Amino acid sequence: MKLKYVIIAILFSVSISGCQLIGSIDDIKLENVLTDEELIVDAKSANIALNGVYASWMHIDIGWFINHLSILSRTINDAAIIGTEGFALNDVKEENEMLERNYLALYNVINMSNSVISKLEADAPKDIEASRLSEMVAEGRFHRAMAHLMLLRQYGEFYDLASPNGIVTYDAPARSNTPKARSSVKVSFEYILQDLEFAAKNAPAKAKGHYLVSRLTAKALQSRVLLYMHQFNEAATVAKSVITEAPAAGYALEGDYLDIFRKRFMSQEVLFSLFTSYPEQTSPIVARNTTTGLSFQNVADELVPEEKDLMTGTGLDPRFGMAFSELSVSMEGNATTGTNKYLTTTFGKGDALNTYFFLRLAEVYLIKAEADARMQRFDDARAALKTITDRAGYDESYVNSIADNELVSLIFKHKWMELAYENNEEWFDMVRLHKLDGMQIAPNYVATDRHLCLPIPRTALAGNNLIEQNTSYK
Question: Per the confidence metrics, is the pTM higher than 0.85?
Answer without folding.
Answer: yes
